[in-house]
Amino acid sequence: MRAVRKLKPGPGHIALCNTPEPDIEHPDDIKIAVQSGGLCGTDLHIRHGGYGSRPPVTLCHELSGEVVKVGTNVTRIKTGDRVTVLPTASGACGHCRYCRASEFFFCPQRKSVGSMRDGGFAEYCVIPQNLAFPLPETVSYDTAALVEPLACCIKAVLFHTKIVPGDLVLVSGPGPIGLICADLARLAGGRVIVCGTDRDAHRLAMAKGAEHTVDVTRENVSEYIRSLNSDGADIVIECAGAAASIDQCLDAVRPLGTFTQVALIEHPVEVNWGKIIYKQLSVNSSIAQNWPSWQRALEMVIAKTIDPSTYISHRLPLENWEQAFDGAERQEGLKYVLYP
Fold first, then answer.
1. CA distance 103 to 291
2. Which end of the chain, N or C, is less surrounded by CB atoms within 10 Å?
3. Beta-ladder partners of 31
């Protein structure tokens, strides 16, 4: 079968390969015919040699598909089910302090789908049944594939960041994660401002959850925020992962406000801790998802409270994986999905 694989450590070393079609090896396994695979910033980090992948491995942790085969011990999934996949819980032990707290991302035994075990940029994927969650036909395969990033944003915005209705919320970085965070902040009752650079004009135009968008190369975002609230933003959510964005967020937030870091940062950045201390900010960070945020994400897509697939800008065949990676690197469009 065809699969996009990271072949060895270091920058690059990704290729579309002909690889043996996987089959069920354990009685709890299921085999999925992949229907949609989302390209995430994590895949780009892996392309650059980061994020601790374990090659050779098939990339993609945002995936959905149809179950085509089940192991002898499988009881909660059946052939023909349309499923989304919880990638981060793969291999989690279930009894360490992190698993007991539903924070399986931190389990030392986990082997995440798409970085530590084969993922969804392939025709087929085999996973344990506990990672698969059936969804009704009213949820498209594209939406199902993007339950994972939605769950990450839910954890950051609805669980780690306490938004009170009427709060002024600044989201910096209008990528897919930033715009989903903006949608969730609006649903929580926030007045949402989204900011980006002049390279983000097309992305800012897609910020449905925002009252207003700010191009920081043309307008001072802190001044704009203070035209709405003289003290500054009640909450800032950093989704760009850049030093300049972090600094702007710290300038824009009010004293006793909240700063939440969501974007992954590939390299060390310098942070002015004086801006944090002298404003006595509450500083949060959030990575991946946990059981509660995953369950909430499933509920929200089934109820159609939110649909992350509305941010898909490019749908490409698996053969065009390099076009997708390059386009995402250049921030052309917004969300890319690949189809086997």
1. 7
2. N
3. 69, 126
What would the pLDDT profile of 110-119 be if each residue is shown by its tens digit? 999 999 999 9
Contact assessment for residue 207 and residue 325, using Cβ atoms and an 8 Å cutoff: no
Q: What is the chain's length? A: 340
The rounded mean pLDDT for the chain is 97
Is the peptide bond preceding residue 22 cis, with omega within 30 degrees of 0?
A: no
Alpha-carbon distance of 46 to 172, in angstroms, equals 23
**Amino acid sitting at position 52:** G
Tokens 């925020």 found at? 225
Instruction: For domain 2-148+289-339, give the CATH number.
Output: 3.90.180.10
What's CA 278's distance to the chain center, in Å? 32
pTM confidence score: 0.96
Q: Identify any residues that bridge with 18 across adjacent strands, giving them in sequence order.
A: 2
* Range 161-285: architecture per CATH: 3-Layer(aba) Sandwich (3.40)
| C-alpha span between 30 and 255 (Å, rounded) | 51
Residues 226, 197: Cα–Cα separation, whole Å: 19
